[in-house]
Design brief:
15 strands; elongated; alpha+beta; Structural Genomics Hypothetical 15.5 Kd Protein In mrcA-pckA Intergenic Region, Chain A; 20% helix; 3 domains; 6 helices; binds uracil; Alpha-Beta Plaits
């Protein structure tokens, strides 16, 4: 693209202002002075500096919630050629990526961004962001199973942290439950349910911190609201007042 357009894209000046910067000899391309119009640059390969400072395009930070269908991987590419969530967000220009993971066979809320600090804040174990799932199980659970899940079950020789667990069906024949955890161990919810003797034919994530899936259609995405971004970023979701309810 034209050098003046690139300088404007970097937020240094308007296009007209960029022309003046060029004409006054303040712009270098790959270390060489360019003080004439008509120079073309490749933003990926060429290094442009203004007054000795290397410039780069302003990065627009993007934060979205996607309703991931099952049978999609949450990686950017897949060696086995399976569909990836990237195909569902191909209408977004920025290079976003998933914040954390959902299993191939799990559906529901997946947050995606191009903001590395935000992704770190949401996934770092010390932030203890709650993730809430609705699980359908293969056999009716007993009250004692629910208590065991709440208290924590042994996975890989280590007990899971206390979970919030709410039966969603007839308390005598519990086939569906809502479970909130803040750890992010591999296939954690399915393995917790396995530990009490149940398979999980369907698992859907319905919330991450204060962000809920709501009625977002499957396979569709929406932008996060600023208040949702702020809450997730700053949130220490470990609410002590709730500890005894877990
Ligand atoms: N727990 C699971 O078992 N699977 C997921 O995808 C997320 C949490």
């Amino acid at each position: 693209m034209r050098l003046q357009k690139y300088i404007a894209m970097c937020g240094v000046a308007s296009r007209r202002g960029a022309e003046r910067l060029i004409e006054s000899g303040r712009v270098l391309v790959n270390g060489s002075l360019v003080d004439y119009m008509g120079c073309e640059v490749d933003g990926e390969r060429d290094e442009v500096s203004v007054d000795g400072v290397v410039i780069s395009p302003e990065k627009r930070l993007v934060y979205i919630a996607l309703n991931k269908p099952k049978n999609y991987v949450t990686t950017v590419s897949d060696d086995l050629g399976r569909p990836t969530v990237m195909e569902l967000v191909s209408d977004i220009n920025e290079r976003i990526y998933p914040v954390g993971r959902l299993d191939f066979d799990t559906s529901g809320l997946l947050i995606m961004t191009n903001d590395g600090d935000f992704a770190n804040a949401v996934t770092h174990p010390s932030h203890q962001v709650d993730k809430t799932y609705i699980a359908r199980v293969s056999r009716p659970l007993e009250k004692s199973d629910i208590e065991a899940l709440r208290a924590g079950v042994e996975l890989d020789g280590r007990k899971t942290a206390p979970a919030r667990v709410e039966p969603l069906s007839n308390p005598k024949r519990i086939f569906e439950l809502k479970i909130s955890i803040h750890e992010g161990r591999n296939r954690q919810v399915r393995r917790m349910l396995e530990a009490v003797g149940a398979e999980t034919p369907a698992l859907q994530r319905v919330a991450v911190g204060g962000v809920t899936l709501g009625n977002l259609p499957e396979g569709k995405w929406r932008r996060l609201k600023q208040v949702e971004i702020d809450k997730l970023r700053g949130r220490k979701n470990h609410d002590k007042s709730n500890d005894n309810k877990r």
